[in-house]
Recover the amino acids of this structure.
């Protein structure tokens, strides 16, 4: 049970979150960690929470060049969609981080970004309690939909709620930057411009609403190999990021669709590019307003203004070689 050691009016530990405070005086009436009044009645703390981890799409993806540090300078407009994993985080009485995964064959050590995120939070916030993470996976892996990054961001949001509710999005994004390039975006989600490695974010107006048919073909695409191939090809069809930003600002759905682009498509090898192009054409044939690969693939998405048409496309394209997911912008 959490308690405070009190000498007169001096609290050494918050009676609500249990975090050490040091010697503070009468003027410090609130815990700087959880924000609660130190003299407020102590409630039984919430020790478990389940949060959704939303997938993302790249409406645009441009690579501006390779940096001196070995990373690539990116410029991307990204959008969260309703397809999501469920992430349950529970504070335990033990020590260490335990992770369990249902729905996918994924590692449960620090190769899993959810575990890496929990470790980063503990180090940044000086938290030493036990953490149990349970993932129910729906977002496909090796898809370009930031499934691992979304799980990591969900773990960080859950730990903030359980341990330090006053922690700002900006601070959480700082913690998340060491976990993965897409994790800062997934903290807030919505519609954002991502630059640098993906950690420099500008929150945009919500994009016009679309329904999404996401198609995952039966092959993965290696992100490091794709970056290496990009360095050796001439990109001839770049996204007009300014036009995309203007379309979002003015709620112009047609112009948004006209400017969906991903330069990674031009770096695919012959067979992969042919498969991706076939799926794109099939989506357009079923009524998509536009289609493109997201991230480094291999998911291809189509944007629909009509939910029924989106569902029909997903049903028609589902098969042995393609798994489909129907979602919408959130």
């Amino acid at each position: 049970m959490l308690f405070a050691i009190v000498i007169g009016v001096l609290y050494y530990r918050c009676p609500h979150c249990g975090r050490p405070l040091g010697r503070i005086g009468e003027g410090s009436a609130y815990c700087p960690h959880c924000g609660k009044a130190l003299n407020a009645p102590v409630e039984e703390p919430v020790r478990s929470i389940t949060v959704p981890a939303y997938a993302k799409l790249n409406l645009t993806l441009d690579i501006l060049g390779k940096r001196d540090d070995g990373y690539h300078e990116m410029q991307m407009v990204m959008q969260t969609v309703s397809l999501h994993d469920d992430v349950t985080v529970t504070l335990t009485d033990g020590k260490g981080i335990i992770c369990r995964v249902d729905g996918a064959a994924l590692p449960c050590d620090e190769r899993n970004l959810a575990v890496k995120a929990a470790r980063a939070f503990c180090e940044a916030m000086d938290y030493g309690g036990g953490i149990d993470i349970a993932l129910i996976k729906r977002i496909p892996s090796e898809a370009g939909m930031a499934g691992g990054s979304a799980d990591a961001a969900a773990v960080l949001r859950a730990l903030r709620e359980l341990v330090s509710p006053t922690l700002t999005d900006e601070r959480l994004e700082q913690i998340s930057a060491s976990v993965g390039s897409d994790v800062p975006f997934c903290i807030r989600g919505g519609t954002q411009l991502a630059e640098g490695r993906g950690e420099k974010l500008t929150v945009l107006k919500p994009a016009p609403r679309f329904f999404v048919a996401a198609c995952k073909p039966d092959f993965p695409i290696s992100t490091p190999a794709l970056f290496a191939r990009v360095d050796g090809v001439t990109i001839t069809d770049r996204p007009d990021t300014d036009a995309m930003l203007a379309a979002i600002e003015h709620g112009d759905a047609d112009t948004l669709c006209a400017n969906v682009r991903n330069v990674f498509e031009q770096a695919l090898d012959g067979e992969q590019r042919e498969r991706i192009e076939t799926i794109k054409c099939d989506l357009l044939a079923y009524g998509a307003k536009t289609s493109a690969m997201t991230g480094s693939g291999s998911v291809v998405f189509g944007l629909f203004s009509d939910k029924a048409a989106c569902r029909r496309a997903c049903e028609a394209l589902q098969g042995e070689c393609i798994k489909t997911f129907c979602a919408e912008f959130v």
User: Anything to note?
Assistant: The chain has nine helices and 13 strands. The chain has a mean pLDDT of 91. The first strand starts at residue 6 and ends at 7. The chain has three domains: 1-45, 48-203, 211-328.
